Amino acid sequence: MKDKTTIGLISDTHGFLDPDLVEVFEGVDHIIHAGDIGDPEILRELEEVAPTTAVRGNIDGGELRFEPLEQIVEIAGKRIAVLHIAGSPKRPRKAARELLARERPDVIVVGHSHIPVVGKVRGSLWINPGAAGRQGFHHQRCAALLHILKGGELKMDRVILGPRSAQ
């Protein structure tokens, strides 16, 4: 294993992929999109940057309706679960509790709330990167970088993309 594996975390793009985020994600080893993609072209663009794992969000119709509701991916020895509607670390929804109990991931990446959150639930690191798109009530568009260090330690950087209303 190399010294560090980096995963770009994104959610709630709602059809808008910030070109600055594509630049930030250049060189990552993998990208995870936690739903509410909004436009299949976003996944195609992300795939050009790095292998991408995505789940379907509640707004994803058309060809995006075929994306799974949940995913498990193993990256650099860490099991990562992805689920769009999951609640919060303090109040995980039933689907999140069941996924955590069944899969016992090291990390769970969620979306839907548009609220960036990092917490621990049942031994799993819970990350909501926040909303990267322009739709919703959030004030700042954001994403995250998850780093898996050689010894298995996890570190995260928040990526602030600017105001939600920015054109």
Question: How helical, in percent, are the residues?
Answer: 10-25%
Q: Helix segment count? A: 3
CATH architecture: 4-Layer Sandwich
List SSEs in N-to-C order.
EHEHEEEHEEEEE
Report on this structure:
This protein has 167 residues and is α/β, with parallel strands linked by helices. The protein has 3 helices and 10 strands; from the N terminus they run βαβαβββαβββββ. It has a single domain, classed as Metallo-dependent phosphatases (Purple Acid Phosphatase, chain A, domain 2, 4-Layer Sandwich), CATH 3.60.21. Helix content is 16%, strand content 36%. The strands form 2 sheets. A 5-stranded mixed sheet has the order 3-2-1-9-10, covered by helices on one side. Strands 4-5-6-8-7 form a 5-stranded mixed sheet, with helices on one face. The protein is globular and about 35 Å long. The model has no long low-confidence stretch (mean pLDDT 95).
Itemize the secondary structure elements and their pairings.
Elements: E1 4-10, H1 19-25, E2 30-33, H2 40-49, E3 52-54, E4 70-75, E5 78-83, H3 94-103, E6 107-110, E7 117-121, E8 124-128, E9 140-149, E10 154-163
Parallel strand pairs: 1-2, 2-3, 5-6, 6-8
Antiparallel strand pairs: 1-9, 4-5, 7-8, 9-10
Give structural attributes.
single chain; 3 helices; five-stranded mixed β-sheet; Purple Acid Phosphatase, chain A, domain 2; alpha/beta; 167 residues
